[in-house]
Amino acid sequence: PLATSFEGRHGSVRYWVKAELHRPWLLPVKLKKEFTVFEHIDINTPSLLSPQAGTKEKTLCCWFCTSGPISLSAKIERKGYTPGESIQIFAEIENCSSRMVVPKATIYQTQAFYAKGKMKEVKQLVANLRGESLSSGKTETWNGKQLKIPPVSPSILDCSIIRVEYSLMVYVDIPGAMDLFLNLPLVIGTIPLHPFGSRTSSVSSQGSMNTNWLGLTLPERPEAPPSYAEVVTEENRQSSIAPIAAFDDFESVLQGPLFAYIQEFRFLPPPLYSEV
């Protein structure tokens, strides 16, 4: 597959088509037109629907004095998102140290460029949020704190020269010390979440759609459809295979709603092998 079009600081992925018309005794006519390619990433795949979580703890030291620990736990519902969605962050930050700390969250884009056996990396801030300052002995809980993903390029994971990755960093800003942070990997896709599993072959699912309803909780397992015996009674089955009288005037029948006549045969079972 072709890599997604991308413009970076140290490299780019571009596509264009060139046409040339040769005419006798005249100069050729040349035309060059650029176009954009998107490699579709369906976030409904199981690996991108799995939750991401982590826990870390840090104890601050100053010379021979040791203060209490600072603990951080964070979780997001899935790994895959699309631009325009909001990531719901569930976190708990406990400050048992003697310092004032501030919990924060940031989405980073990491661009990696490979050429001639060397690699250059660029890290850019995409979106961030800030929590309330925590004094000593305080705890803050985020119950689905939202961080919206702006319009960004989708992840590029299968290109040999450019790689674009995303991550959510939930961290505690500690003045005068190294921050305590958790990195949760993200994949920015092109096909948004829907409640009935993956439909990568559907052209309609690859187009843009309204993502305001994506906060719904997905069922763990879809309910199985009822069996044929549960739906069709013996009386319905016998009536559906009974011989049907021929209509004298078929045109008069079609004057009514056709659906009323289709309903009679909706429980018709498939024919037996001997009948065929």
TrEMBL record:
<dbReference type="InterPro" id="IPR011021">
    <property type="entry name" value="Arrestin-like_N"/>
</dbReference>
<keyword id="KW-0472">Membrane</keyword>
<dbReference type="GO" id="GO:0015031">
    <property type="term" value="P:protein transport"/>
</dbReference>
<dbReference type="GO" id="GO:0005769">
    <property type="term" value="C:early endosome"/>
</dbReference>
<comment type="similarity">
    <text>Belongs to the arrestin family.</text>
</comment>
<dbReference type="InterPro" id="IPR011022">
    <property type="entry name" value="Arrestin_C-like"/>
</dbReference>
<keyword id="KW-0963">Cytoplasm</keyword>
<dbReference type="InterPro" id="IPR014756">
    <property type="entry name" value="Ig_E-set"/>
</dbReference>
<keyword id="KW-0677">Repeat</keyword>
<dbReference type="InterPro" id="IPR050357">
    <property type="entry name" value="Arrestin_domain-protein"/>
</dbReference>
<dbReference type="Pfam" id="PF02752">
    <property type="entry name" value="Arrestin_C"/>
</dbReference>
<comment type="function">
    <text>Adapter protein that plays a role in regulating cell-surface expression of adrenergic receptors and probably also other G protein-coupled receptors. Plays a role in NEDD4-mediated ubiquitination and endocytosis af activated ADRB2 and subsequent ADRB2 degradation. May recruit NEDD4 to ADRB2. Alternatively, may function as adapter protein that does not play a major role in recruiting NEDD4 to ADRB2, but rather plays a role in a targeting ADRB2 to endosomes.</text>
</comment>
<keyword id="KW-1003">Cell membrane</keyword>
<dbReference type="InterPro" id="IPR014752">
    <property type="entry name" value="Arrestin-like_C"/>
</dbReference>
<keyword id="KW-0458">Lysosome</keyword>
<dbReference type="GO" id="GO:0005886">
    <property type="term" value="C:plasma membrane"/>
</dbReference>
<dbReference type="Pfam" id="PF00339">
    <property type="entry name" value="Arrestin_N"/>
</dbReference>
<dbReference type="GO" id="GO:0005764">
    <property type="term" value="C:lysosome"/>
</dbReference>
<protein>
    <recommendedName>
        <fullName>Arrestin domain-containing protein 3</fullName>
    </recommendedName>
</protein>
<feature type="domain" description="Arrestin C-terminal-like">
    <location>
        <begin position="66"/>
        <end position="193"/>
    </location>
</feature>
<keyword id="KW-0967">Endosome</keyword>
